[in-house]
Structure formats: C-alpha cells, structure tokens
C-alpha cells in the first residue's frame, strides 16, 4: 500500500470506519484450513440478538481481539468465530411486548404466526449488536458468523438430543421444577438468581385431631398450606415422638393430614415441625417421595391460586397470602410473626420470584456427564485463569441435579419428539417425523415445548465448526484454544460446554478459560438501569475513539477482578493516542524526503543502542504477559515504555544525536507491539511510513533479539537520565526560568561514570539547560546547591539560579505572610471558646495547618540563610 500523510490532529472518526472496511474487504480476518500453519481458535460468546452493546461486551470483545490479533501476528492461523444467540426467554418477551403495544395478544396467535413475527424481528433488529461489535475493531471472521437457530446449529441440537436419549440420559417425567410465573416457563437451577429480601416467619398452629393440643409450624409461605399433605418431625426429637402417626387439621382449610417422622427435619431450626408441601418445595418433594405422599398443586402458571385453594381461587399468590394471614389471625391460629431476611429465588431474565412447581418436563441425567467434566479441569486438560474460579465450577458439578431442558416457549429449538395419536408411541428423531415408526400412522404431533437456550449454546465451540459433520474445520480448528468470559456465567454456560463437548467429541472444548470481572461504575457499583449509572460504549467511542476505550478497559485490568470505569481514564488513553500521533509526526519531519530505510545501521550512538535494547526487552516482556493472558500488565508496560522512554526521552535524544533509521525502526516496532491493543491508530500511522506488506495486522509481532541487548548502553543512559532529572527537579523547585542557563559540577569517583558523562556532555547541556558542565572526582564549589542522586553528586552555583537580592526580598515577604497566617491559627487554638465548641475534626485540622505553616517557615528561613 502507498504511504499516507498524517493530519495535524488525530481524529478517530476520520479513521476507524474506513480502516475497518478495508480490513474486511481484503479478507484479513478470514482463516482457512492450512496444515502448514498452527491454528489458534477462539469462539465468541454469542451475545443475545435482543442485546445492545454494553461495557461488559466491550471488555469481553476487546480481550478476545487483543489475543487473536497477537496470535495472528505471531504467525498462527488465527480464527475468531463470531455469532449471536437466539435467547429464547429474552427474545420471546421482547416480541410479546411489541405485540402488546400493537394491541395484539400472543395467546390469540398460532405458533406459526408468532414465529413469523419473531424471525421478522430478528432480521430487523438481530444484527444491531453485530454492527456495534464491529465498531470496537473486532477482527472476527464474519464470513463464518453463526446463529444458534441457524440450520447447522439446529442439526447439531437434534443430534445432541437424540444421542443423549439413545444413551438413556434424557427422560421425561413429573418433577418439581423452577417456574417463572411472568415468563410462564420452566427455568433450570442455573437460571435462578438468589436475592436477599425482607420476609417473615409466620408461626401457625395445626390442631391435633380429636385433641386440644397443637403443633406449631414456622413458614415463610403460608399461601402454600392449601397444598400441605403432612407435618414432619425428626424421629429423634423427643418433643414430638408421641405425635408421629396421629393426624392434624390444616387451619382455615379444615383438611386432615398425617404427622410423619423424617430425618430431613432439623431439630434446631424453627419449631422442629415442618409442613410438607411436595408440589411447592424441592425438599418437601423428596420427603413426599420417601413417604408416598400425594402431590397437591395449588397455583396456576401465572402464580394465581387454583381450585385447590377454595375461596382464594383466582387471587394472586401475594394477595392470597395477605387474606389468609388475616383469617389465621381471626381464627386464633397465628401465634407469632418474626421478621427475617432470607434468600429468595428469582428469574435471571425478569427478576420475578420463582415458584417451585410440579410439572411434566424433559430432563438430562447429569451425574454421568458431570464426572468427566470435573476430571477435565482437575487433570489440567482445561485450565481456569485465574485458577480460583475452578472452585465455582467444581461446586456446581459436584452438587449438580438433573437438568430441566424443556421450556414452555415458542421461540427456540423445538423438542425433536413426535407422539402418535393412535398407538401413543413416542418418536425421537433427528429428522422431522411424518409417520409413526411403530404403527406407521400419520396421525402424529410434535412436542409443544422448546429446549433451554443453554442446550444449544452449550454446543457452540464445536457446532460452529460443522459438527455433527466431520468437517475439515472441525478437525483442524478444534479444540479451541481459549474461552474469554465473565465469572457470572461459569455455571450457566461454561459447565455445559465442557460436559457437552466431552460427551459428543471426546475432546475438551477449549484449553484455557480466561475469566474477567464485571465493569462497574466509578464508585464500584454494578451498572444498572435502576441506578442510572450505565455507560454506553458507543457514546464513548463517538467521543474518544475505539482505541481509547479499548486501552482504558485494559489498563489496571487483571483476570477475574472487577474493573471500575472512569471517564478520566478514557481521556487519559485518548491523550496517549494523541502522544503517539504527535511522535509519529515528529518522525515524519525527520525522515520525509530522505533516503531512510528503517534498517538498523552497524554503528549506533549510545542512545540509539539504548532504545533498540530496551525495545527488544519490551517485546519479550509484553509477549510473556500476553502468553499468560496478563493483558492489563502488558498494556501498562507498553504505556510506560512508549510515553516515558520513547516519547519523553528517546525523541529528545534523537534531536541531538542518533540515526534516523533507528528512529523509524523504533516507531514501526512500537506500532506493531501496540497494534493488538489499539488497532486503528497503529494501522493508520503504519500506513503513513515506508512499509512492506498490505497491513500492520499481518506483520510479524516483534520478538526479543539477544544480539540487540546492550546492558552497557542501558546503564549509561540511566546515568544520563538521572542527572538530567535531578537538575530539572531542582530548577522546578527553585523556580529557575526555563531559558536560564546554569553551570553544573558533577562529582564522581567512578571512572566509568566519568567517561559516560564526558562523552555525552552535549546531551546533558541540551536537555538540562546548561551553559557549562564539568566532571571530576572532587569539587569545591562554595555557595552552591548540592544534589545527590543514585549515581553522582551535583553542585549548582547559587548565583546561576537566582538574583540574590531579588530572591531575598521575595523570601522576606513570603516569611512575613507565613508568620501572619501562623499567628492567626495559633491564636485560634489558644481561644478556649473555640476549643470547647468546635468539633474535634476542625480542631485537629487547625493543629495540622499550624504545623504545616511552621515547617514552611523553617524552609523559608533556611533559604534566606543559604542566600547569605
């Protein structure tokens, strides 16, 4: 490509979209099977089609893009597969809401009519999140973009279902499941989020049949008592042993139920008596199963009370609770109400309180699938980064229950099961069934339910590469190398991908799982609509550019830890981009119109040898960090090197001495090192310099070269910089005018230091603002300021720094002003009224102020004495 001219000011809006289009049009993101290269694969965690880019996405995509760009530049055949998730519950809710606004009731539509609307919605809005991800600079292979409801994923889902069914790992049965009354569907255990809420323990008296005695039960959900089928006590609880086998009467309801003994009951908790409601509590369900108790459901699917609740039928569960508690009080059945805080299960999508509900659903048997998934991580085949997150993974798998996979929704993968209306046979098939495999009847119908969204996204790492077909891509790019994801979906998604991959492909889905934290606001709070503290990444990109946002999300970022977002941090990174741009313009001023190749010359100045050595080492350090996925550390190292060593020091050195080929070589290598982090600005600048190849993103990532290491040059420049810094600090402290030249006497007994300083006295003179510099083993410089640093002793004659008469007058005035302030503060501290009435914080502040003024006065008087 031809060289470009850099504008005076860097404007991301002029650059980013244009560069991204060029990358895409030229196919730079695309990867094909190439056995001559080593593959490196990432699959993007598919964002929901209902989604809008938020800071969590921005962090996630940036981390993946840094890794894939780095690996691509290292020479790997790097593939990053993008895609989106159909998100059953979220999308169906969004479309139903749109229908309501149009005055259409979903319940009055056919399934086909609703799905037509859903697909139309997906076509119109489902691509929004993709175009937003592109604005970040994500170098995904968009030609391989997938959707969890596309034809290939549908084929994979059916294959997975049928294989598990044939192995006896999928079954249908009545079980207690989590039911969301708002979404009107079952949800799995991993989709239930627990929130601490205020609640009550209602102590309710159940009268013993044919007796005046009562047993008292403490419950948080009195409205479920319509479904009570027993009271339970611990068989070892001497308080209640005599009641086992007797009956009690449910208050208000009037129904008679038995008292049973079961070791599940904790003697120490509550009253030691439990009401057993198998249809509405998972533990009660287990107790009920052990004692062959009936199951009595008392709620409809919208959490209103059903016919088993008698006069409460039709009431919302909370309205029924309120009315029932009132009637319990009136009847004398309520002995006590205790206020408590307890964890309540809520739907992860709509936050409604979940109801345990008995229902006929499809389940996956999990124990046999969980074992190899646990071993996969324990053996080190797959590793968590940081390792501590494996504890969440183990805890979930070691305590796993059967997975409820059916959902009462229309949008999603429909369960591939067809029922024969004539013989009752259940046909489980990979393909659509036209007639019953048992009796050949065509009078069949498909199961109405869809599969849990995580059932399909759990197949993502291998289904996007062609599974169940044995494709060249699957053979070459799988298993993938790293999954980048947040800690909040380890049990939602990571667990499912590992056991699904092992069960279907006999391989782990990925070698590494890189966990990142949440992006929080500047106060450390989670970003949410209710707090109004969300930050729109697109607005940040519009204002500061994608590179500034990307780099700000990496600075200070460490795996697994939450990150605080500050606008000031993005501004700082925008300033960093401007610094690089201005440095590049300086390089152009020095090389344009000259025969500069950018190749390192044989003979180089000490400062040239220094920057070349430092850059080589920086390449090593950054590469090591990226290999260990320490992206935040790598970003900080690059920032410090580019800003401090290259811009602040080497550019200044190059104005005095040095080869312009070294200047060009250095800046081009810096652009390559920085490219994975800030791809747009680095590409734009790289294109402006003489170059080989079409794009920076396909250049080789800089590597450490031992032959370029020069410890002597590094030590020499360290000494020069220390002297220059010492003099500059002194000038700043003494308010020496910038243009005022001073004499410098440098004392050192180290002959090597003496040689270095003598050989580079021109650098000292220019950069420290000197009129002369003398270096020797011993000096006697009367009436001078002495500076001692890590290497040498420096003398600066006072007359070179200030006009003694003027400075003495200025200091005398400052002394008088300081004395006056100190007198006022001390008088205040002597005032008994002030001491007796003022808050201690104010008094302490006054004392601190007085001490500060005393120290200031001491320094002023010392300065006056020095001038004499």
Could you provide a short overview of the structure?
By secondary structure, the protein is α/β, with parallel strands linked by helices. The protein is globular.
What does this 3D model show about the protein?
The protein has 868 residues and is of the alpha/beta class. The protein has 28 helices and 29 strands. The strands form nine sheets. Strands 7, 8, 9, 10, 11, 12 and 13 form a seven-stranded mixed beta sheet that branches. A four-stranded antiparallel beta sheet has the order 6-5-14-16. Helix 2 packs across helix 16, helix 16 (546-554) crosses helix 17 and helix 18 packs across helix 22. The longest helix is centred in the C-terminal third of the chain and has 28 residues, at 840-867. It starts with 11 loop residues before the first helix and ends with a helix.
Topology, element by element:
Elements: H1 12-25, E1 39-43, H2 55-73, E2 77-81, E3 83-84, H3 88-101, H4 111-125, H5 128-135, E4 146-147, H6 151-166, E5 170-180, E6 185-187, E7 192-208, E8 214-219, E9 230-233, E10 247-249, E11 256-261, E12 273-276, H7 282-290, H8 317-330, E13 334-347, E14 355-364, H9 367-378, E15 383-385, H10 390-398, E16 403-404, E17 406-407, E18 417-420, E19 426-428, E20 444-446, E21 450-451, H11 453-457, H12 460-463, H13 472-477, E22 480-486, H14 490-505, E23 510-516, E24 519-520, H15 537-544, H16 546-554, E25 563-564, H17 567-591, H18 606-627, H19 631-654, H20 660-674, H21 679-688, H22 711-733, E26 742-747, H23 751-759, H24 761-768, E27 770-776, E28 784-788, E29 793-797, H25 798-801, H26 804-830, H27 832-837, H28 840-867
Parallel strand pairs: 1-2, 3-4, 9-11, 15-23, 22-23, 24-25, 26-27
Antiparallel strand pairs: 5-6, 5-14, 7-8, 7-10, 7-13, 9-12, 10-11, 14-16, 17-21, 18-19, 18-20, 26-29, 28-29
